[in-house]
Amino acid sequence: MIDCQTYVVWDVETLRFSWEVPGRWSNPAGFGLAVAVSQDHLGVTRTWVEADALELIDYLSGYDCVVGFNSRRFDNRVLEKYGDAAALDDLTVDLLEDISAAAGRPNCVSLGNLAETLLGETKLLDDPTDAVRMWRGGKSEDRDYVVRYCQRDVELTRRAFEFG
Q1: pTM (2 decimals)?
Q2: Residues 6+ apart with CB under 8 A from 56
Q3: Which of 74, 72, 61, 67 lies closest to 31 in space, CA to CA?
Q4: How far is it between the farthest Cα atoms of the chain?
Q5: Distance (Å, rounded) from C-alpha 19 to C-alpha 13?
Q6: DSSP 15-40
Q7: Which of 39, 74, 94, 127 is the 20 to 30 Å CA partner of 67?
Q8: E strands, the chain, in order
């Protein structure tokens, strides 16, 4: 068990759709980083874009725990395109992995279902591919919405983590 005196919760949104990536879901690094949001145990929230990816890896590595939802299998792997993110796995608390292990069923819940059931809250987008479309569209108001969508996912993940 990881001792989480200091922790950061994070999430990524990607540049590409799965059908555009050679190897699809078996190649998360191919999705590319559009934007990531992190929020530490003190509530400090930061936004990161692709140009910040190496700095993001270093930043996450400075915490006792790096908390995410499906992060060990996906988000951590997205960062591998930009630098050595392998060490993050040792720090990762992946809520999807933990819930799936407790339920005895792999990938048994989505973040949206978890948030609705546990917190009575919803995500900002029902379809995550909308985030890719909006980011790629390049309009500042759409990109701002994608950042808010990612921030909301981080907030929901943090609240679920702190719940228990």
Answers
A1: 0.92
A2: 36, 38, 48, 79
A3: 74
A4: 43
A5: 16
A6: SS-GGGSTTGGG-GGGG-EEEEEEEE
A7: 127
A8: 7-14, 33-40, 45-49, 65-68, 92-94
| Res 128 pLDDT > 80 | yes
Instruction: List Cβ neighbours of 64 (8 Å cut-off, separation of 6 or more).
Output: 2, 3, 4, 5, 6, 7, 91
Q: At what angle do helices 129-137 and 140-163 cross, to 10 degrees?
A: 150
Which residues are CB-contacts of 67 (< 8 A; sequence separation ≥ 6)? 4, 7, 8, 9, 10, 92, 93, 95, 157, 158, 161
150 within 8 A of 12, measured Cβ to Cβ: yes
Query: Which DSSP category does 150 fall into?
Result: H
Amino acid in position 126: D
| Amino acid (one-letter) located at 137 | G
Query: Would the pLDDT of 105 be above 80?
Result: no
Per-residue tokens: 95: 């809520």
